[in-house]
Structures are given as C-alpha cells and as structure tokens.
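Record pair follows.
FIRST:
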Amino acid sequence: MTLEIPAAAALWFLPFALPLCIWVAWSDLRDMRIPNRAVLALAAVFVVVGPLTLPQSVFAWQMLHLVVVLLVGMGLNAAGLLGAGDAKFAAAAAPFVALGDVRFVIALFAANLLAAFITHRLAARSALRRLAPDWQSWTRHTEFPMGLSLGPTLAIYLVLGALWGTTTG
C-alpha cells in the first residue's frame, strides 16, 4: 500500500497534529464541543509546517481543501446534519489529506466512525462510564461526539502516511 501523502510530511505533521487530535476527541466526549482553539491550532500546524515539507504548488492546492470542506460543512451544519465544531475540524484537517488519498480517508473515517459509535454506546452503558461520570456525551443520547472519530481518523491517516506515504528519490 502506498499513500499519496509524502512520508516525510506526515512525519513532520504527526507530532503537532496528534495531540490536537487527542484533544478534540477528549473534549468532544467530555463537553460535546470541539474547541475553536484546537481547530485553529490544527490549521496553524498545516500553515507553518506545510510549506517546509510540501512543494509550494501542492501546499497551495491542499489549502484549497480547507475552503471546500468548510463550505460543504457549513451547508451540512445549516441543514442540521453536522455540528459546527465537526465541520470546522474537518475543514482544518482537510489540507493534511492528499487529493489522491480522499477515497481511502473516507473509507478510514467510515470504519473509524462505526467503531467509535459502537465503542461509545457500549461504554456509556457499562461500568467504564464511572471513570468519567460527568461527560456530556453519556447523557445526550440523540447526539454523538463526532470528534471521537474525526480526530483519530486524521491521526491514523498521518501514521499510515508516515509508514506508507510516497518517498522522493
């Protein structure tokens, strides 16, 4: 398997993006909110590290991913299909994904979403819930903390990119 993201870029993005992905999952579980600071920090990681690790033309095109995903996310949020924080995080994560890897990332997200949903619902009904009894995600039964899947999807993609991304030379 080879991913289109350059392995070196994924390696550089990973130490900065991984803590943010964990923060997003944690805060969405706890408060059913994805902090704007986490979204802005993730976008800043791409803006700062991207030009150092990607060719200029690739960096520019991938920045366009942010705009496109943000516009789609705004539409989905307006239709009540997606939370605003989820839309903003997806937009901030979009530039990290190489265009040739979009189908792979969609499949990865789908699998991750299913696993996260089942795990969350089982944990909410088990003794594990006592570890964090005040988390909002336990009591909002009609909502799901999408950050629990969005953050790990980006993290997994970057890890896989570091292992199986394209190499130069």
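SECOND:
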Amino acid sequence: MQCVKRIVAVAALLGVTVSAHAQGLADRVREHTFANGLKLLMVERHTSPTVAAWIRYRVGSVDERSDERGIAHLLEHMLFKGTKTLGTTDYAAEKPLLDRIEVVAQRLTLEKAKREKGDASLVARLEKELADLEKEAGTYVVKEEFAQIYNRNGGANYNAYTSKDGTTYLISLPSNKLELWAAIESDRMLNPVLREFYTERAVVMEERRRSYEAEPEGKLWETFLASSFNAHPMGQPVIGWMSDIANLTRTKAEDFLHRYYAPNNAIIAIVGDIDPDKTIAMVERYFGAIPPGVPVPPVAVEEPPQQGEKRIEVVGDAGSELMIAFHKPTLPHRDDLVFDVIDMLLSDGRTSRLHKKLVVEKQLVAGIGAFSAPGSRYPNLFIISATPQAPHTVAEVEAAVYEELEKLKNEPVTKRELEQILNRLEYEEARQMTSIGGLARNLTEYEAIAGTWRYLIEHRRQVATVTPEDIQRVARKYFTRENRIVGFITPQEVAKQ
C-alpha cells in the first residue's frame, strides 16, 4: 500500500513538473518568419556551449507523383554530395562532364525502359560511356566534405532522414560554430550539385534489394502498406519500387529539388546556447536572399473506405510475424487523440494490456507493440505488430489481439488507467525535450505536420479530455472486420507442410 502511495505521489509530481515545463516552453520558444517564407524556431538554453540545428522540409514521399516515387529519399542521399564550392576541386571543369553524363544517362534510361525491345548493343555502349564519364568526373570529387568540415569543428549527430511527411537534416555542434553551419547549409539550399547521381542511384537500388527484397520483414512491411492504400500515395514505399528508382534521372531530381527544397517549405529549429536576436540576424544574412520555391501542394486524392478485410501473406526464410491494422484519421481529428490513448493503453510499457496478457500471462508472443503509421499528414493506420513465441501460431496471436480489442468496445477504461496513461505520456514528452536535439526535432516535426509547434502543448491538454466513452466509441467505429488489414509472415518450412 505504501508503494502504491509513493507511485501516485511521484505521478502527481511529474504531472506538475511537466505542466510547468509546457508552460515554460510556451514562453521560451522564439519564432521568426523571413520574407522568403523560411520559418525559424529558437529556444535559448545555456546549460552547455552547444546547439542543435535541424532543417525540416515539408516534402516527403507522399508528395511524389507516380513517375517520381523514391525521389525524395534519393535526394536525401544526393544533398550530401556538395555544392558548387564544396565537394569539388574544380566545379568549372566538372560541370561540362556532369552535363555529358546526363545526356548519356537519359539515353540509356530510355533504351533500358524498352526492355526486350531495346537495342542490347546500344545499351552496352552507353553503359560503358557512362562509366567512363563518371570515372573522369570522379577525379574532381571531394568525398564527404560536409562531414569532414563538421567533424573538424566539433560537430556530432550529423544525419538526415526521409519519411512520408518530410525530409530532415540535423546536427549538433559547439555554439561558436553556428555561423559555420549557416554558411554550409545555406550553400546547400541555394547551390546543391547532384554529382555522382547515377552511382548513388545504384547504391539506393542495392539498399532496396538488401533491406526489402531480400528480407521477409521488409517485404511484409511494404506489401502491407501498399495493400492498405488503393488510391492514396501513403501506400507507396519511401525508397520507391525498384523500377521507380531505375528510371529516376538527375534532370527529374533537380526539377523536384528546385521546386520544393526552398525557404518557403523549410523550418529551421535552433536550440541551445544562442542569442535569439543575433541568431535571427545571422540566418537573415545567409538564408534571407535565397528565393522561395513552389509551395508543396496538398495531396488531393482521398482513400476510399475499405469494404472488407484484406489479408497479406509473405512466405520467407524468417520467423512468424503478424501485423493488424485499421484505417484511422490523423490530427487534428479528435479521434486521433483517442488513438494516442489507446496506443499507450495497449502497448506502452510492461503494465500495458497487450504486454501483460500476451507476453506475461499467455506467453504467446516474444514482443508486441502498437503505433500509428506510415505518416501523419494524411489519414493513416493504427497498427499492432507482434512476434509469435514458438510453438504458438499467428492464428492464436491474432485471436488474442481481437479479444483485447473487444474489451475496449465493451468494458469502460478505468479512471486510474487514464491517469497512468496521461502521466506516462507527459513524462515521456518532457523527457524527450530535455535534450536540445529532442526539442529541435519536436519543434520542426509539429510545426511541419500540425501547422504549429504549439501542438506540443495543446496535445497534452487535449489528450486529458479523452474519456472512457470516447475510447469505446472509437474502438467500435474503427476496430471492425471490414476496416481491417492483416499481414503475416509464414516461414518457408511451414508453408511447405
């Protein structure tokens, strides 16, 4: 009993601490929008002489047309290759070679697209010419010059990632090197050069082959998503299908790049040891003259309602895996908030319902989790993923999951469960924001997806209004057979039986 009282007391204290933190964040975030549309978010923290600098572009794989699939991910790779001044020993001499490479590569891509009707001898000749030109152009390339400069100047966590929703470049570095960051990143935004494009395209094709086509888990994931969306590009893989990547050209990538990777589609978050007024002036000096691009248009297509259960099986050299998904709305829809609570109720931590029932009590699974995916800007999926524990089967696990979902429909969640969920949610959000990188990530993420970083604060308040009746209503509305997608891996030895 004494232990329970201590837990309740700690939870209450965490709630007070987080509320104070949220209120403090509302007062401490400084924002500035420049004339070219660039959004700058800043938080001044002098706990160490470092800063985290994140640039988020509001363009991801969901914004690609059918002939552009995989282009945002490939551009993530390409934007590490340098600019007219970085990544090259002599751009004036390199540029004519890059132009010749593109002429040859375009011809080669078109001839290969003819498949069996193409001229094999012409393909072989163009492949050799392309390889020779790339080798010659490679003599001017300075590999990884961005990374080298950052490393020499104390940079850390230099990275990038592409998602359905956007593309992000990030780094942490000493605060007295922030102007170096501004010089490098403004040059990358204004003067990118997509050198070694076709070499890197081959690298991405190998990445796809290794991570998806050779791995049953990866194959299940992308087949599962593609089967879940008939119309909406949310279902297309971020990396693109193999034939998509093979037909991407530098010309097409540059067009996409110059349209969207521009100040009006960018959000910068700088958190750490800064003076906001001086930071605004510095960003203005380096980024202010960069012209805006084209606003990323909203995806107009809507996914039609699913009319019946979909089941996807992948047979492979792997253990059993199970995924169960249901279509759901995204923010700012109130039901998205309810799903946040359901997510934590079912799978957050060792006291969650699915863990207690399927891992501890029944020992059906080695692990289980729930999450919303694959993006957040458009209606998405609530997914439950589980790894059956031998000798238990996918069918046993599937039935046990449905049993827990039925309880959500028929048995009201207790007030104590909701209180525990809110405390864990608030604690976790506060924990993420204690690091300057975590806060920079959250600021750019919410600004890009929700339209304002203030959703960080509003989210907690809105989740606190979710009731047991909301959970029952949402469970009954969305956890239906006709709205369900089930995917699973069948091990090869089982499939042969």
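COMMENT: Residues 1-20 have pLDDT under 50 and may be disordered.
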